[in-house]
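Quick review question:
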């Protein structure tokens, strides 16, 4: 029951902070940073074409951003899930989704390299997102 109350308080804080126009520059900065880091990972691990790496990173982040909206609109039941489990589940789903996007864009690259790049990209991205949430909500 305590987890449900904490989840409700956190979600109330998230909703209130998301509509705060002063946070928009911070969120855009961190999203741009995520796209840059993921583009560099793609550049070094998959292909040495920087413009294609940025395009792939942008498309992958656009799709995972839409997926994040679904996670936000249809949250997990807090009674059965811990916050860590939710983060791990969403990380795995994002890794698989971005690996699918990268596989479509880089058909000649081996599947192992695609999953390696997707995993590194998402772990780095999640570290930035967690830092952003700690900064905003802390």
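Suggested answer, residue by residue:
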């Amino acid at each position: 029951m305590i987890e449900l109350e904490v989840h409700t308080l956190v979600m109330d804080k998230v909703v209130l902070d998301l509509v705060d126009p002063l946070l928009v520059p911070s969120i855009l900065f961190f999203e741009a940073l995520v796209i840059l880091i993921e583009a560099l990972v793609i550049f070094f691990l998959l292909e040495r074409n920087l413009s294609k790496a940025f395009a792939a990173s942008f498309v992958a982040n656009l799709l995972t951003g839409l997926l994040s909206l679904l996670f936000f609109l249809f949250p997990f039941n807090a009674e059965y899930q811990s916050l860590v489990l939710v983060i791990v589940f969403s990380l795995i789903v994002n890794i698989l989704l971005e690996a699918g996007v990268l596989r479509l864009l880089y058909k000649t690259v081996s599947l192992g390299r695609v999953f390696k790049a997707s995993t590194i990209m998402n772990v780095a991205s999640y570290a930035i997102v967690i830092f952003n949430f700690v900064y905003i909500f802390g």
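Why it works: The first helix runs from residue 2 to 18. The chain has one domain: 2-137.
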